[in-house]
Design goal:
Order of helices and strands of chain B: HHHEHHEHEHEHEHEEEEEHHEEHEEEH
CATH superfamily of chain A: RNA polymerase II/Efflux pump adaptor protein, barrel-sandwich hybrid domain
Helix content of chain A: 10-25%
Number of strands of chain B: 15
Shape of chain A: globular
Oligomer: heterodimer
Number of domains of chain B: 2
Structural class of chain B: alpha/beta
Low-confidence stretches of chain A: none
Radius of gyration of chain B: 25 Å
Helix content of chain B: 25-40%
CATH architecture of chain A: Beta Barrel
Low-confidence stretches of chain B: none
Strand order of the largest sheet of chain B: 2-8-7-6-5-3-4
Strand content of chain B: 15-25%
Distance between the termini of chain A: 13 Å
Radius of gyration of chain A: 13 Å
CATH class of chain A: Mainly Beta
Largest sheet of chain A: 6 strands, antiparallel
Strand order of the largest sheet of chain A: 1-2-3-9-8-5
Largest sheet of chain B: 7 strands, mixed
Number of strands of chain A: 9
Chain lengths: 130, 445
């Protein structure tokens, strides 16, 4: 069973949102389930700092050995940091999806929109249906 | 496997399975007015011998001409080894390998091809080939849009007019516009004019070198002008033999090199089939169109070859693919690889130098003639240059054909260039002094 931490928010496309501790900022990555389904990640294409995205707009792509998937931005906002460590070591997404494998940090246009995303229980049920 | 045609019984069985009575009923959804009701007017079928005789008659009507045409296709010698090797049945396929890993020999050749393209262009990665120089340039433009995340394409006015048309076709629906920087009086693009034409939405500048007129552009300042404004430099190489003599475009600052590979072991024929070259910097490899062969090791540590980065390609990524190309010109790329291996680094340089020497010998004769003059007297060229003719250039061409000489390419075919009437003359190592003097007789009337 994939790990689904209680304190995160999720999308049906298997991105997670983790509160970055400073006002209105969040880390975005893909879930443990998603990395398991993709298999060995070989490349993550990320946006530039300063780029803005709408809710569920594609912000990048993730490439595994056999597939490439879109990455969707769970909240509208602006990218304030990208995880450059993934350039050299994209497998961090596999080994530590919720930690060192994060992808972008965003400043949400409306932080309260996070409440509209799936909670851990809802995401677990979503996985069971899948 | 032998070819097994469908018998009448097979057809009846298949039609029965889908529940229709005959072929016409199968196609009943095609609007009636689009269906031809009368039978095709075809001549009666020929026996094998009759067909051979007919084809020989047709072939005999092809005149054998001494060619001074260039403009993107060049009449170089193709060593006998090329035809011998590409006709081996292990290799003989026109197309990209679709069950690639069982075709290790084919993959190894493509890998060698990619390595040669990188060495010639001074770039870090190359693909398994494209259709031709023009479509490779179109793909380069699309790739630049994606890398730069900008919308406009800027072309040098000295780009081959056919390349320009192909880029414009590719750009339709992809780019927000295509702009042109006209070439200066001397037939070349000036860095200042280029810098002025680049704006914040210019994804790339496409410069051909040597350019359509055979002239050498100064790539470094053009690359600087592009990079200063955040645009990529795409270098189109319609004459890859030039790469044996000039500084590779990669060293001069090109971000993408798109080229024609025909002069390497492929006959010009009537314009094809030919083979496109495509190379870029490693940082852009995931945006590069087409197939890429990589070297790897199998479980037992033996070297093997695979198609790599296929996840970007159309058969996997569908509409989100890097490009619509997921093939290569297998046989033509093989011919190019065998050619380059056969002539080697020194051989290719001698081909280039002999071609250039012939061109410069001819140029000297042109300068002494009445009624014609070099179109760009002050710009440097290698083996191709344009002349202005007082007489209609098409009349000169006709006179040449009557004497067994193809006296170049008429500039009047390209009204968009803004050049006066004249001829574009190209020279290869196959031409000799007597042939060049005959050409001068034709041009002089």
């Amino acid at each position: 069973m994939s790990e689904v931490p209680d304190d995160l928010r999720y999308t049906e496309e298997h991105e997670y949102l983790r509160d970055a501790g400073s006002e209105g900022e969040f880390f975005v990555g893909i879930t443990d389930y998603a990395q398991g389904e993709l298999g060995d990640v070989v490349f993550v294409e990320l946006p530039s700092v300063g780029d803005s995205f709408e809710h569920m707009e594609v912000f990048g792509t993730i490439e595994a050995v056999k597939a490439v998937s879109e990455l969707f931005c769970p909240l509208a906002g602006e990218v304030v940091e990208v995880n450059e460590a993934l350039d050299d070591d994209p497998a961090l997404v596999n080994s530590d999806p919720y930690g060192d494998g994060w992808m972008i940090r965003i400043r949400a246009a409306d932080p309260s929109a996070a409440d509209g995303l799936l909670g851990a229980d809802a995401y677990r049920s979503h996985l069971e249906e899948a | 496997m032998t070819f097994v045609p469908h018998s009448d019984a097979d057809r009846r069985d298949m039609l029965g399975r889908v529940g229709v009575s005959d072929i016409d009923e199968l196609f009943r959804d095609v609007p009636r007015d689009l269906v031809r009701s009368e039978p095709l007017e075809l001549p009666r079928a020929l026996s094998e011998w009759e067909a051979v005789r007919r084809l020989r008659e047709l072939a005999a009507r092809n005149p054998s001409l001494v060619s001074f045409t260039g403009g993107g296709l060049y009449d170089h010698h193709v060593p006998a080894a090329v035809d011998h090797i590409i006709r081996r049945s292990e290799f003989y396929t026109a197309y990209t390998p679709y069950q690639p890993e069982v075709a290790q020999g084919t993959l190894q050749v493509i890998y060698e091809f990619q390595t040669m393209v990188c060495e010639l262009t001074g770039m870090e990665v190359a693909n398994a080939s494209m259709y031709d120089g023009a479509t490779a340039t179109g793909e380069a433009a699309l790739m630049a849009l994606s890398v730069a995340r900008r919308g406009r394409i800027l072309l040098a006015g000295s780009l081959h007019p056919h390349y320009r048309k192909v880029v414009e076709t590719y750009a339709e629906g992809s780019a927000s516009g295509v702009d042109v920087v006209p070439a200066g009086e001397d037939g070349r693009v000036h860095p200042d004019a280029l810098a002025e034409a680049i704006d914040d939405d210019t994804a790339c500048v496409i410069v051909q070198n040597p350019n359509f007129f055979g002239l050498l552009e100064e790539l470094e300042p053009l690359a600087e002008a592009a990079h200063e404004r955040g645009a990529l430099l795409v270098t189109a190489v319609a004459d890859p033999v030039s790469l044996a003599m000039i500084r590779p475009p990669g060293e001069a600052g090109a971000d993408i090199v798109a080229g024609e590979g025909q002069p390497f072991g492929n006959a010009p024929s009537f314009g094809g089939p030919v083979v496109g070259l495509f190379a870029t910097r490693r940082e852009h490899v995931r945006k590069m169109p087409g197939r890429i062969v990589g070297a790897t090791e199998d479980e037992e540590g033996r070297r093997g070859y695979v198609l790599t980065l296929q996840t970007r390609e159309q058969q996997i990524r569908r509409e989100r693919a890097t490009s619509n190309i997921c093939t290569n010109q297998g046989l033509n790329a093989l011919a190019a690889t065998v050619y380059l291996a056969a002539v080697g680094r020194e051989g290719l340089r001698r081909v280039a130098e002999t071609s250039a020497r012939n061109a410069h010998f001819a140029r000297g004769l042109i300068e002494e003639m009445d009624g014609v003059e070099p179109l760009h007297p002050d710009a440097p060229f290698l083996r191709e240059f344009a002349i202005r003719t007082r007489e209609d250039s098409r009349a000169i061409l006709e006179r040449g054909i009557a004497r067994g000489i193809l006296a170049g390419v008429s500039l009047s075919r390209f009204p968009g260039l803004g050049a006066p009437d004249g001829l574009l003359l190209a020279f290869t190592e196959k031409r000799n002094r007597a042939e060049i003097e005959d050409l001068m007789d034709v041009i002089g009337g």
